[in-house]
Design a protein that fits this description.
Elements: E1 2-8, H1 23-47, H2 50-62, H3 66-77, H4 82-98, H5 103-124, E2 136-139, H6 144-149, E3 157-160, H7 168-175, E4 180-182, E5 194-198, E6 203-206, H8 210-229, E7 235-236, E8 242-249, H9 252-257, E9 264-268, H10 269-272, H11 282-295, E10 301-304, H12 339-353, E11 358-362, H13 368-380, E12 389-394, H14 397-401, H15 403-406, E13 412-415, H16 417-425, H17 443-455, E14 461-464, H18 472-480, E15 485-489, H19 493-501, H20 505-515, H21 521-531
Parallel strand pairs: 1-2, 2-3, 3-4, 8-9, 8-15, 9-10, 10-11, 11-12, 12-13, 13-14, 14-15
Antiparallel strand pairs: 1-5, 5-6, 7-8
Length: 532
């Protein structure tokens, strides 16, 4: 939730005053601008957290891409100014990315435009944008560089016109705890106008009732401060049920910053090593997993095996182009033909399990035969007797529907609500035209979660590690459905624990039963608001 004067920064770089020179002059200017942009991105990368550093590495690669640069200099030779040639080439590349089926690649169009504008500012002499403070930043799309440079203590919030939650800038901003709302559309926002938004309710208002917003923000701030102060306490409901609240992590720093977490319910190994051009060795993996375990003080951590494909490529494991990568080789499917990489990872996990509580889970599982193969691979690396608990991700509707047989012999399953929602609703969260359909509170998704809880074999625990677990109201609903382990983004852990402590599980169960009968996600959201 945020309130402040609008800082509108959704325009393009003004090229109107640019005076072109000769071909030689324009070529030299272009080279100088590329060098300046590279220096700026290098500085941003060196100052960024691990996950953001990989983003800036990808942007730096664009500045050294001959396939991209050749048309720029050809355009200059043919009489174009350096800014015109650069803009034309980058706009064409962005359009190409936007036309791809792969959502991850479509999101790269945002990175291309960010690099485009950075070089154009260097060419035109426009001042590099200073990080805005003391207001609500309104942008058409949020690039990673802007998100990384914001002062999280001073910026009131960020409102993004474009829909979607998987853009690099959005991910960086949320990881830093900056209030943010996406999908506000083309609503007119005069610079300096007072604006407010409530991301929980999905509302953005120009000229709001400031007293109402300030009162609500004070309440939310007090709620967060109290939650952080009590973050170390367990999440025990009013009627005595303990809910484990863990953190999703993609770096050692994420683990260090996870206040009050009961461990990690999801260690994203493809993010941990996502900037590597060669696969990490067993020893390198052991060192990193050990550091994460130490950050959690010996509390349990759940390490997900390599989850690549779809929107998560790994530089050291190139994949062939697929017409529909989200329905192609993802997660465990990839390693049926490259088992050596998985075996190295399992060896590292088993070594760490000798020292601290560790679980391993396999992503994108669809069939019992895949589970049997994964268990055989784990047995082959010598896991027997090492205390490694084993589970799978439930992300595919087929897995949820056959969970009674799929989970036989496992210790736990963890429901990944992001992909489960996407596959259930046949809607890509990164596609603004259908993103609203991909709502994890859709009763169809909730019914699949309910089915998993009710039908897992006796003794198999059920967790949720998708975005739905990061919403305090949804966390109560999940508890009511019978989920006793939630893994959320780090900054939300204290709030979720606090909300659960105020909950009566009996009432949460009644709410969950009613939610399963409702017609839409909107109706479920309204029900949760009423019961909050």
């Amino acid at each position: 939730m945020a309130l402040g004067a609008a800082i509108v920064a959704d325009g393009e770089v003004d090229l109107g005053g640019y005076q072109a020179g000769s071909d030689a002059v324009e070529r030299e200017r272009a080279q100088d601008a590329l060098r300046v942009a590279a220096e700026q991105l290098t500085t941003l990368r060196d100052q960024a957290a691990i996950t953001a550093a990989a983003i800036f590495d990808a942007q730096l690669a664009l500045l050294d891409d001959a396939v991209l640069l050749d048309p720029v200099f050809q355009g200059i030779t043919q009489g174009e100014s350096a800014p015109a040639a650069w803009k034309s080439a980058l706009d064409a590349l962005a359009s190409t990315f936007e036309g791809l089926d792969d959502p991850y690649q479509r999101e790269r169009a945002q990175d291309v435009r960010s690099v485009r504008d950075r070089v154009l500012r260097a060419l035109t002499g426009a001042r590099e944008q200073e990080a805005p403070t003391d207001g609500v930043l309104v942008v058409r799309e949020l690039d990673a560089a802007t998100a990384a440079s914001l002062d999280a203590e001073r910026i009131a919030g960020v409102a993004v016109r474009a829909a979607g939650t998987t853009g690099h800038g959005v991910i960086v901003a949320r990881s830093r705890g900056i209030p943010l709302i996406t999908g506000i559309g083309d609503v007119a926002v005069p610079p300096g106008a007072m604006v407010g938004f409530d991301a929980r309710a999905g509302s953005f208002v120009v000229d709001p009732d400031e007293n109402v917003f300030r009162t609500a923000i004070r309440a939310r701030t007090a709620e967060r401060e109290a939650a952080v102060a009590d973050a170390g306490k367990p999440a025990v409901t009013v009627d005595g049920q303990t809910i484990q609240v863990l953190a999703n992590v993609g770096s050692v720093q994420d683990a260090v910053d996870a206040r009050g977490a009961d461990g990690s319910g999801l260690v994203r190994t493809e993010v941990l090593f996502g900037n590597r051009k060669v696969a990490p060795t067993v020893e390198e993996q052991v060192e990193t997993y050990r550091a994460i375990a130490a950050a959690f003080g010996g509390k349990p951590i759940t390490i997900r095996s390599w989850d690549i494909g779809g929107d998560k490529p790994l530089p050291f494991l190139p994949q062939a182009a697929e017409a529909n990568p989200f329905l192609g080789e993802r997660g465990i499917r990839v390693f049926r033909r490259r088992p050596e990489l998985l075996r190295d990872q399992l060896k590292a996990i088993c070594q760490v399990a000798l020292e601290t509580p560790v679980q391993v889970m396999f992503p994108m599982v669809t069939t019992a035969e895949e589970v049997a193969w994964a268990l055989a691979e784990l047995a082959d690396v010598g896991s027997s007797g090492w205390g490694v608990k084993v589970g799978i991700m439930v992300e595919v509707p087929a897995a949820a529907l056959r969970i009674s047989t799929l989970a036989e012999g496992l210790d736990f399953v963890s429901i990944g609500t992001n992909d489960l929602t996407q596959y259930t609703t046949a809607a890509d969260r990164g596609n603004s035209a259908v993103a609203s359909l991909a709502d994890a509170l859709d009763p169809a998704v909730l019914q699949l979660i309910d089915r998993v809880v009710r039908n897992v074999p006796t003794g198999v625990e059920v967790a949720v590690c998708g975005d739905l677990a990061s919403d305090p109201d949804a966390a109560v609903l999940l508890a009511g459905l019978g989920i006793h382990e939630l893994s959320a983004v780090g900054p939300q852990v204290p709030l979720i624990k606090s909300r659960l402590r105020q909950t009566t599980l009996t009432e949460a169960t009644k709410t969950a039963v009613e939610a399963l009968t409702l017609p839409t996600a909107t109706a479920v959201r309204e029900l949760l608001a009423q019961r909050a």
